[in-house]
Write a structure and sequence with these properties.
The chain is mainly beta. It is 7% helix and 25% strand. A four-stranded antiparallel sheet has the order 1-2-3-4, with no helix packed on it. The chain has one helix and four strands; from the N terminus they run ββββα.
């Protein structure tokens, strides 16, 4: 860590698509789905909401296979559907078609790696430059 910037490097050894889905439990305010790959790597995903507590669209992962250290989530959207949210994203209001990390970090200086200000901040301050998804 340096000035709020973290350098994280690693290699993905294996990425497994969990394409099989089973409805494990269906309730009024909660559904539990079990995703797997041919019966292996079972992962339970709970979709819930609670109007009284003002909790809307809560997604919880549980029963992750041993050794799992990250998950990727891809959501289906209709052709004309828009995507908003993902925290404070200042570069694009509609995030449809854009990939962005869900990692919290300091904003940094500048917005694009090719910009001179960002380039200088990255080289003089060990990654102090910003990116399209962290600065405004």
């Amino acid at each position: 860590e340096f000035l709020g910037n973290f350098r994280i490097t690693d290699d993905v050894i294996e990425k497994i698509d969990l394409v099989d889905v089973e409805v494990a439990k269906k309730g009024k305010n909660k559904h539990v789905l079990t995703f797997s790959s041919k019966g292996s790597y079972k992962t339970a995903v709970t979709l819930s909401y609670d109007d009284k507590k003002d909790l809307d669209h809560v997604v919880t992962f549980s029963s992750l296979p041993t050794g799992t250290n990250r998950t990727w989530v891809r959501l289906y959207a209709e052709r004309d559907e828009h995507v908003y949210g993902g925290g404070e994203q200042f570069s694009h209001f509609d995030l449809r078609g854009h990939s962005f990390p869900m990692w919290v970090r300091e904003q940094g200086v500048g917005r694009q790696s090719w910009d001179w200000v960002t380039h200088v901040a990255n080289h003089l301050h060990e990654g102090g430059g910003g990116d399209y998804h962290t600065t405004y």
